[in-house]
Structure formats: C-alpha cells, structure tokens
Fold this protein.
Amino acid sequence: MALTRNFKQTVADRAQRDPAFAQALLDEAATLFLNGEPEIARVILRDLVNATVGFEGLAKETAKPSKSLHRMLSVSGNPSMDNLAAIFTVMRSKLGVNIEVHAVPVA
C-alpha cells in the first residue's frame, strides 16, 4: 500500500517551516487577484491563513467573524476590497513582507 499525504496538510506544513514558501504563496495570491483569477487566489490565501495565523487569529486581527472569513476565502466567496485589504494587511504583517506591483509589458 502506497503512503499518501493530504495535499493541504503538506502545503500547511511547508508554509509553517519555510518562510520563503509562505511569502511565495502570498505573492501568488496577490498576483492571481490582480490578473483576474480570484477563485484560485482565494483558495491559496485560505490555505495560507490556515497554515499561519489561523482563522480565529485572523478574526481577532481584522475584527471580522471567523465564519465570515471562511466564506470570503471559499471558492465562491466574494470579499469586499476592504475585507481583502484587511486580510492582506494581516498576512503581510505575519510574514514580514511588503507587496509591490510592477507592470510587465504584455506582448
């Protein structure tokens, strides 16, 4: 019998032990939002929240109910820009990173 491991748990474990990986997940989520792929961005952001601050911690930091945050970051979620900015602010602080946008010419 082959040993298997839950993918989400693998991502969470790596994000907890590898700050560069966690930062790359945050970068990828921001890039996906800006490039019009919010569904995937929300899933990545949800996994990152689970691996780092947790939804209860995020709820305390954003003054939003954790259940609402779970819904916002679901595939079908629809967070407002204010809520999304609050989530990114907490994650940036937790990971100790700044997010900068650089324009790349499209060919």
Summary: Residues 24 and 96 are 12 Å apart (CA to CA). The chain is about 65% helix and 0% strand. The chain has one domain: 18-95.
